[in-house]
Amino acid sequence: MKAESIVFALVGAFFGLIVGWVLGTQQATSSRAVAAASAPSVQQASAPAKTVDEDQVASLRAEIQRDPNSVQPRVALGNLYYDADRFDEAAKWYEEALKLDPRDVNVRTDLGVSYYNLGQPDKALQQLDRSLSIDPKHTKTLLNQGMVRAFGKQDLDGAAASWQKVIDLAPDSPEGQRAKQLLDGLKSAHPGGGVSAPAPRGQ
């Protein structure tokens, strides 16, 4: 699943930025402008251009021609383009796969993350919400929902709520640990600033 890359890349490379960005929004007249300037971009300008294995693309397209109802080659094409940071083409193939299998939570989450990378946070959240309507406990979706809420919509309370759900569901999982790191950083950077999260539920 490709959607996990938004969190694992961002948490490692940009965790410090979330703290600086949150602190900056307290002093700025327009938090949207600060977020646009400071929020992490999944594509880094200095990164070398990535390429797609055209032989793999041709093979997968041929597979689709042989079996027009096959989902997996469409997902594989989406993954190839996602890995090459060609998110518009990735989104196209994820959309095609979902026409055939609309309940695939992993693919729908990957589509949402692709929309986020294309600068379309509202469309991203729509897909993530649909994923969660199918599987409310899908921790990778919840983790990514928090990232899109924080960096795409500047909704810090919403982000905190998403991350708290991950912690409640799977505190010892990699997603739970990432969510705890993000939530702790958000709270320490924004003390008393309105960032709230649901209290942990009892057993």
The Rg value, from CA coordinates, equals 18 Å
Fraction of helical residues: 55-70%
Total helices: the number is 10
Q: Give the mean pLDDT.
A: 80
Helix-strand makeup class: mainly alpha
Provide the CATH top-level class.
Answer: Mainly Alpha
Task: Classify the beta-strand content into a percent band.
Answer: under 5%
How do the helices and strands follow one another from N- to C-terminus?
HHHHHHHHHH
CATH architecture: Alpha Horseshoe
End-to-end Cα distance:
30 Å
Number of domains: 1
Total E-strand runs: 0
What is the element layout, followed by pairings?
Layout (H helix, E strand, L loop, with lengths): L3 H22 L5 H8 L15 H13 L5 H12 L3 H14 L4 H13 L3 H14 L4 H15 L2 H14 L4 H16 L14
Short description:
The chain has 203 residues and is mainly α.
Explain the overall architecture.
The protein starts with a helix and ends in a 14-residue tail after the last helix. The protein is elongated, with a radius of gyration of 18 Å. It has a single domain, classed as Serine Threonine Protein Phosphatase 5, Tetratricopeptide repeat (Alpha Horseshoe), CATH 1.25.40.10. With 203 residues, it is mainly alpha-helical. Helix 1 packs across helix 2 and helix 9 packs antiparallel against helix 10. It is built from 10 helices and no strands.
